[in-house]
Amino acid sequence: MPEIVFQEKKDLDHLLDVTAINKKMADRKDNPYRWRVGSFHVPKNLPPEMFNRVCREAINRWLPMYEKEGWTLASKVQVYGKWPARDLMTGAVLLDRDEYRARAIFKADQKLKKTVRTYIPESLIKKTDNQKVSLADIAKDTGMRPVPLKKRPIR
Predict the structure, then answer these.
(1) Which of 20, 46, 107, 108 could tie 50 with a disulfide, CB 3.0–4.6 Å?
(2) Residues 38 and 59 in one domain
(3) Secondary structure class of 134 (helix, strand, coil)
(4) Looking at residue 140, what DSSP letter applies?
(5) Residue 136 is part of which domain span?
(6) CB burial class (10 A; 0-12, 13-18, 19+) of residue 15?
(7) d(CA 21, CA 31)
(8) 27 sits in which H/E element
(9) Residue 97 and residue 42 in contact, taking contact as beta carbons nearer than 8 Å
(10) What is the number of domains present in the chain?
(11) 16 with 120: CB under 8 angstroms?
C-alpha cells in the first residue's frame, strides 16, 4: 500500500461558514440575473479572422444550450483568457491548443428553481469564529481517504 502524505499549508480554514453561505444565497434568490461561463479550445497560432470565426462558432453552440434551459441572454458575450488547454477526460495538457472562456449575463425566463439541498457533515460546519481544522481531520471524520500523490491526475 502506498504511503499517504498530507501536504497542507498552515493557518488555512477548511470549515464551511454555513451562516455566511445562507446569507449570500438569500441575497441572490430574487435576482433573475446570473453569470454563465463556458470554455472552448482553439488551435494555436490561428490568424485573427480564423480565431474570430472559431469563437463565434463556439458561442453559437453555447448560447442555445442556456436558452433551452429557460435563460435569455442579457449582455454582450465576452471572450477572455488564454490558458493551456487540457483534455477533459485525462487532464493532460494539449500542446497544440489554447483554452479561452466566454461569459455573459443571462436572465431567468421563469422563477428560478428551488435551491438543491446538500447534506454537509457536521464536522465540516464552523461553529465558532476562531475554529479551524485541517484537511486531514476532515478526511478522517467523513470517511474519505486522500488520493496518494503518485495516483493523482496531472493538472
Answers:
(1) 46
(2) yes
(3) coil
(4) H
(5) 1-29+115-155
(6) middle
(7) 16
(8) helix 18-28
(9) yes
(10) 2
(11) yes
* Burial track 31-60 (b if 16+ CB lie within 10 A, e otherwise): eeeeebebbbbbeeeeeeeebeebbeebee
Q: What's the burial of 101, exposed, middle or buried (CB within 10 Å: 0-12/13-18/19+)?
A: middle
Amino acid, single-letter form, for residue 94: L
Residue carrying the nine cell digits 467523513? 142
Q: What is the pLDDT of residues 55-102, one digit of tens each?
A: 999 999 989 998 888 889 998 999 988 889 998 888 899 999 999 999
One domain, residues 34 and 107: yes
Instruction: Give how far Cα 146 sits from Cα of 3, 135, 149, 150, Å.
Output: 11, 9, 9, 12
62 and 48 in a single domain? The answer is yes
The owner of cell 443571462 is 106
Whole-structure pTM over 0.70, yes or no?
A: no
Instruction: Write out the DSSP string of 33-98.
Output: EEEEEEEEEEETT--HHHHHHHHHHHHHHHHHHHHHTTEEE-S--EEEEEEEEE-TTT--EEEEEE
CA atoms lying within 13 Å on the CB side of residue 19 = 4
23 lies in the same domain as 42: no
pLDDT digits (tens, 9 = 90+) for 43-61: 999 998 999 999 999 999 9
